[in-house]
Amino acid sequence: MRGLRRFFRRFRSLTTTRQDEARLSAEIEEHIALETAANLRAGLPPFEARRQAALKFGCIEAIKENYRHQRGLPFLQTLTQDLRLALRRLAMAPAFTMATVAILALGIGATTSIFTLAHAVLLKSLPVAKPDELYRVGKESRCCYWSTWSQKDEWSLVSYDLYTYLRDHVEGFAELAAFSAGEDSFGARRGGSTEPAGSYPGEHVSGNYFSMFGVQPWAGRAIAPADDRKGAEPVAMMSYRLWEEKYALDPSVVGSVFNLNDKPYTVVGITPPGFYGDQLRDPPPDFFVPLHDDEADVATPNQYWLDVIGRGRRGVSAASLEAEMRTGLKQWLGAHWSQMNANERALFPQQTLYIRPGGAGITSMRDQYEHWLRILMLTTAFVLLIVCANVANLMLLRGMERRRQTSLCMALGAQGPRMVRQALTESVLLALIGGAAGLALAFAGTRVILNAAFPARAGLAAIPIAASPSLPVLLFVCAVSLLTGIVFGFGPAWMATRVEPAEALRGLGRTTVRTGSLSRKGLVVIQTALSLALLAAAGLLTTTLQRLENQDFGFVQDRRLVVNADPIQAGYSEKGLTPLYRRMHDSLMTVPGVSAVALSIYSPMGSNYWGAQIRVPGRTPAGPGDESDAAAWNRATAGYFDVIGEKIIRGRGITEQDTETSKRVAVVNEAFARNFFGSEDPVGRHFGQFPYPDNQYEIVGVARNARFSSYPALNKPVGPFFVLPEAQHDYFRLPDGKDSEQHGSHFMRNIVIELRPGASPLLFAQIRAAMASVDPNVPILAIRTMKEQVSGQFIQQRLIARLSSLFGILSLVLTSIGLYGVIAYNVSRRTGEIGVRMAVGAARDAIVGLVLRGALLLILFGLLIGLPLALAAGRFLGSQLYGLSPYDPVVLSAGVIALAMSGLAAALIPAVRAGTTSPMDALRAE
Amino acid sequence: MGDAKQKTDVLQGTLALMVLKTLDVLGSLHGWGIVKRIEQISGGLLSVNQGTLYPVLLKLEQEGSIDSDWGVSENNRKARFYRLTRAGRRQLAAETRDWEQQAAIIGRFFSVKAEDLR
Q: Which of A13, A450, A603, A701 is most buried when burial is the number of CB atoms within 10 A of its CB?
């Protein structure tokens, strides 16, 4: 308490220095006067009286100094003095200051922007109440539908039936909420308005979703369990973002009716700003509706389409939750034993689930980007190391230059620790300025990266990742800059104070100790090695991107347009779609320049595909866990293969003759034919989709393999694929006696248009008009060229390739600057020696060669160390590469050559300068 | 160096206590008066280096144990007068107790003779 009061008084006295000094002087003067008076009274002569008084008082200056130490805060005062001196010194060396700050800003900025992204995607919690109490089901996030009574490795998707069973039987959860795993979208229009419907992302959520997250509605009320029942009034919640941007926070939106997919919903509330649902999504949902909106999925006990997050009861451990949930799953599966087939029953013992912390929500974004972010973090860590090496080099040079001054100060009595402290103050100040500049750079950089990775779409929300660094990121930047300042300031400062003052003062700036020369060379070697690794990684990723983009896709990208339109959002049902497609086709064909049109569920490299288990008569089905029966499929109108330019190599494609009444047919690709029929001719053979009859379709044609999707991986061979005609509906008798068809597989959301040679691809307005003339309520989600669609699949790869190239070039430049600095400094120190050499007859070429040899040696050392690093980088990238080996010799040698050339170029400048030294000048300078 | 520092620390500690006690007994007093009183009682502790009192006074004032004001001294000049505050009185009481306790313990140790322990 007393200490604290004293501290405040001392702190306050920093501002009253002058009064305090005056007061002390007055007191001392008065003291001596009183003592003198007493001495006079004792009979001493005046002069002696005064002398005795002064003697008894003691050394006035020492006491004043002591007093001052007690009065203020000497630490703070020294710091301000050192800071003022440091600022003056830095201002006197603007080139050094600017270079150091710029280099530091680049390094810290690059690291911070990547760290900001990594933090947001990998570590951040959802903006909900007490996220640490939340648990999710599933180690991995899966998409989006599943329908067998077994799930591989773990259960991560659940059905509505399973969800309610777990909700009602698992005690450990205070609340358990479910929501759709896939992305839903709604054609939305305010009731009574005449504007065309806009398409917005949405989500189906259970009635307790908002109460489980502890999220309060911003306006109105949240969706409640009473809304999530069969026959309940349809309600929806709108995002604050949409409410603000489209409806200008109009309070009448709450309680009004909106048509979502042409069905009326009452908007009962607005979600709070900043709430973006249960996971990072691009774009985040704008509408939330109860699960029961999707009646068909809710009613099917083995339609798994939901993710689950729950709030654990206080004191219940994750392990006990997991045990309870597993028991619940097994009991539920047991209750459905009669509906399971032999395979599923055999897999029953292995069925399990895992409980994971759910504070970050469903982490599909993390699963998708984790590896890339790790690569980027490693890359920027390398860049930061190179930057640190460069800064260390600059600091060492500065320390050398400062040695004479330091020696002089010490000869005059300055204390070593104080000198170190002063130098440290300067380097930490420099590093902090660099850190601040880096932070600004990082903010801009994160913006740019986010815009490139997740391009903004008009009318939709941006991905909810803030470009501004969060608190941990700020702390990280602070720590990095402080550390850089301390580590790289301390060494040179300490070295400078170790010099014998006499020696430094004697030798005209020439010293016999070559302190720091070796460490500076070492730093350049390390920089070269790291740069090689970065350049190799950048080269590998860039080449991969080129190979990916220029691979043979098996379909034609030129003169093709893709229109995304969604009839579901206009309220169409499965029936009566074929005439709609006919009218769309005919209407689009009237647009000038269009030569062919086909509709399909998916277009090549657009998004995902439907999956199926294939059964062929006479072929033994694959056992449990075996995926050799799997195939992907699509449904399309007549002429589809011609329109996308996929060649038919046997038989025929889908034609007008495939109608509802003709035989059920399919066209398969080469991979399908080879997988299921080996070398036999597949045309005329039959196959079916499990669990339906195995002679469902007759194969009428075989198409060339075409890459239809970037899933599972672009560097794997194209898998089995088949295409069914749109006009043919498949009806099957289900085990429960009802008739079913492939639910939803007749909604053709992709319209592929082939243009005549020479036609302008900018037909967007005419295409919209042609579509609107058929039905203005069908929202057009997007129109793009096939080229754009394909290159859209490589956004991530392109971004990574560009960023790593940027970092590679940055490291190359920094390394060259570092090398230049070292060589130039060495040359300037050897001026005398060079002068002597030339005076005794050395040729200019020999001098240039001498300097270049030294530089080359450094580069060679660096490359030698860098080679294994580069190989390790290739190995680390391994699975991300396509069409080349991680140890690709061309890429490696290109990196080596680039480094060697730029290094030599950097060394050439001081070398030539050394060669043009005039011997007379050099010797005179001695 | 370490030795000298220790000595001054001890001196400062005792000096502070003496200052407090002096002000307790004599009331408001200026620096020179305190010095004279301490000299008088301690018999020469401050006969040299009287100036060392001032840092001690500053520290006590910063801690809030004493307070000071300008006044007029015996020879009609402006002088700084120090007086004990309430906190200072409490501190003095506490330190007096501590000191007496310590002194008693040390005194008992010194008075013990070898045969007493048999």
A: A603
Alpha helices in A565-700 (DSSP H): 577-589, 640-644, 670-677
pLDDT tens readout for residues A422-449: 888 888 888 889 889 988 888 888 888 8
Asked whether the beta carbons of A831 and A917 are under 8 A apart, the reply is yes
Share of chain A above pLDDT 90, in %: 16
* Chain B interface, best mutation among A34, A51, A63, by max B CB count within 10 A: A34
Among all residues of chain A, which has the CA nearest to that of B80? A27
Residue type, A251: P
Q: What are A11's two structure tokens?
A: 């702190």
- Out of B62, B63, B73, the one facing A34 most closely (by C-beta) is B73
Provide CB contacts within 8 A for A599, sequence distance 6+. Answer: A581, A584, A585, A636, A637, A726, A748, A750, A751, A752
Rounded distance between C-alpha atoms, residue A115 and residue A117, angstroms? 5
In a mutational test of the A interface, the residue from B62, B65, B67 whose CB has the highest number of chain A CBs within 10 Å is: B62
Contacts of A33 in chain B (CB under 8 A): 75, 77
Best of A27, A39, A52, A69 to disrupt the B interface (most B CBs within 10 Å) is A27
Residue numbers in B near A11 (CB within 8 A): none
- Tokens 């050099």 sit on residue: A922
Indicate yes or no: CB of A63 within 8 angstroms of CB of B51.
yes
- Report whether A778 contacts A771 (CB < 8 A): yes
- Please tell me which of the candidates B59, B61, B75 has its beta carbon nearest to residue A33: B75
For residue A822, give the 3-state DSSP assignment: helix
Q: Which sign does the torsion angle of CA A741, A744, A747, A749 carry?
A: negative
pLDDT average, residue stretch A353-359: 86
**CA pair distance A382, A425, nearest whole angstrom:** 26
Residue of chain A with shortest Cα separation from B59: A70
**Per-position b or e across B41-77, b if 16+ CB within 10 A of its CB:** eeeeebeebbbbbbbbbbbbbbbbbbbbeeeebeeee
Q: Is A58 close to B35, i.e. CB distance below 8 A?
A: no
Using CA coordinates, name the residue in chain A closest to B61.
A6
- AA identity, residue A668: V
Q: Cα angle at A445 between A439 and A450, to 5 degrees?
A: 130
Q: Are A276 and A466 in contact (CB under 8 A)?
A: no
Per CB-CB distance under 8 Å, the chain B contacts of A24 are: 54
Q: DSSP character for B118?
A: -
Burial A690-716 (b: 16+ CB within 10 A, else e): eebebebbebbbbbbbbbbbbeeebee
**Mean predicted lDDT score pLDDT of chain A:** 84
- The residue in chain A having the minimum alpha-carbon distance to the alpha carbon of residue B88 is A2
The torsion of the CA quartet A188, A189, A190, A194, rounded to 10 degrees, works out to: 180
Contact A58/B79, CB-based, under 8 Å?
Answer: no
- Examine the pLDDT at B9 and tell me if it is beyond 70: no
CB atoms B48 and A71 under 8 Å:
no
Of A287, A284, A293, A283, which is closest to residue A269 (Cα–Cα)?
A287
